[in-house]
Amino acid sequence: MNSIYAGLARRGLGITPLLAALILAGCAALPHPSAPPAARAPAQADFVMPGSDPWPEANWWQRFNDAQLDQLVQLALQNSPSLETVRARIDTARATVDLTRAQAGASLDFNTSVSRQRFSANSIYPPPFGGNIFNEGRMTLDFHYDFDWWGKQKAALEAALGRRRAAEAETAGAAQTLVAAVSQTYFQYQADLARLALARQSEGVRQQLVTLQQQRVRAGLEAGETVEPLKADLESTHQQVLALESDAATTLNQLRGLVGVPGGSFPALAARPLPQAQGGLPANLPLDLVGRRADIAAAREQIYAAGEEVKQAKAEFYPDINLAAFVGVDSLDLGKMFKNGSHIMGITPALSLPIFHSGALQANLKGAEAGARLAVAQYNQTLQQAVQEVNDAALRLKGTADEAVPLSNALAARQRDAALFGQQARAGLADGRNPLRARATALSLQDQQLQLQTQALVARVDLYKALGGGYRDATQSSSATASVAR
Fold first, then answer.
1. Which residues, in sequence order, are CB contacts of 123 under 8 Å at separation 6+?
2. ∠28-29-31 over CA atoms, to 5°?
3. In b/e form, how buried is each residue of 260-295, taking b as 16+ CB within 10 angstroms?
4. Which pLDDT value is given to residue 30?
């Protein structure tokens, strides 16, 4: 408590020994501080592989050079209902900051009142007041100022600012999640269209095989039952065509929902080849990740706000000193209100001493400290999830790249077989069914290649999102975790 006395002395206030004793006695017992929680930091060993690629830009989706995707992303960011909720949270947080800032300053109010009252003849008012009715008018300017000597109001404002920055970071994270979902759904739709085109080609090849086999049966070169397996393959391929048509329609409907524009305003999408998914992890990953993920930035700001709320709860244990003053006019005769002698003024210094609150202050502080520990735990959980997402996307991207090599070699071999069998068939040296069989196998491998390429694109977008999607934390509150301990 000596620091309190010294703080008042530094401000030039004359404090009598009695007043000092009252202040010291009035301070509620501050509990012993609990051990501050520790926020962890990522290390290079947390990641499955090193990196040397650049970090994604804020408009990373433009790397795919697809004007249709650019248009869909722009529409989604402008119109998606999923962003309205988080934008409203920012407005609420900003309003809370404005209210807290206003409450921390001085206030000046104009008040006026008129009352009609009969004064008792048997009370403290002598004649001519006692037993008569008077109209009293009062008009004042009232001033109030609360001295924030212990930093309670400042801590409340800083906590509100932290919550606002957290809401802004959460909005940026929600936007990145939306962009990633639009991109992945768009690529899935293009993959459905490409696979549908391949399935229709495969259906045509299967039909030719059935036709050739039927001709050979009629010529007595093959048994009739040899046609049935080929018809079954044709029906299976036709079923695949129908399934892909349904998949494409469903994916397009999902894309419309993500973009959030009415059906008539949704742009017509043409089929486009899928881009290649290239790239890996960036350099300085452990050092930069915490400043490039919006959810980590939001969690860090929550730690900062919780730490300020701990300081605010501690300040509740100290005396509250404020000043009130007024100036105006007051008269029991309304006709004399603005005449000489009706003016009034006063000043009221006030001291509130928290002596006994049935444990309410201690409970409030314990709640604030628990909130700080929860904020740190949520930060650590968010960081762990971020590392896991980066590793998962990087491993999936590497896995698809590894699988693409033997699949590409197999496809090239089948395409060479189809070309060779075609030449032999045209020269009359081979059965005309051989090039069709090789073509059907090549189309099946192309379908597998498209699916693998789609998986790679989805993993690439997931990696962009896991790396923060181009987000940069402008505040970089280095004191965020340290404030919890104060």
1. 130
2. 135
3. bbeeeeeeebeebebbebebebbeebeebbbbbbbb
4. 65
- Assign residue 88 the CATH number of its domain: 1.20.1600.10
Residues 6+ apart with CB under 8 A from 126: none
Residue 3 is assigned to a structural domain of this protein? no
Q: Which domain holds residue 49?
A: 40-134+150-311+359-485
Residue 346 tokens, joined? 């006063």
Residue 189: closest CA among 397, 450, 462: 450
Backbone conformation region of residue 35, classed left if phi is above 0, alpha if psi is from -120 to 50, else beta: beta
| Number of independent structural domains in the chain | 1
Let me know if residue 367 belongs to a domain: yes
- Give the mean model confidence (pLDDT) for residues 249-254: 94
In a domain, 6, yes or no: no
Element (H, E) at 189: helix 152-218
Assigned domain for 185 exists: yes
The 10s digit of each residue's pLDDT in 441-481 is: 999 999 999 999 999 999 999 999 999 999 988 765 444 44
Residue-wise pLDDT for 121-177, tens only, equals 787 778 877 778 878 888 888 887 777 778 888 888 888 888 899 888 988 999 999
In the numeric block, the tokens 């940069």 are attached to: 472
Contact status, residue 260 vs residue 438, Cβ threshold 8 Å: no
What distance in Å separates the CA atoms of residue 15 and residue 38, rounded to the nearest whole number?
41
Q: How many CB atoms lie within 10 A of CB 231?
A: 15
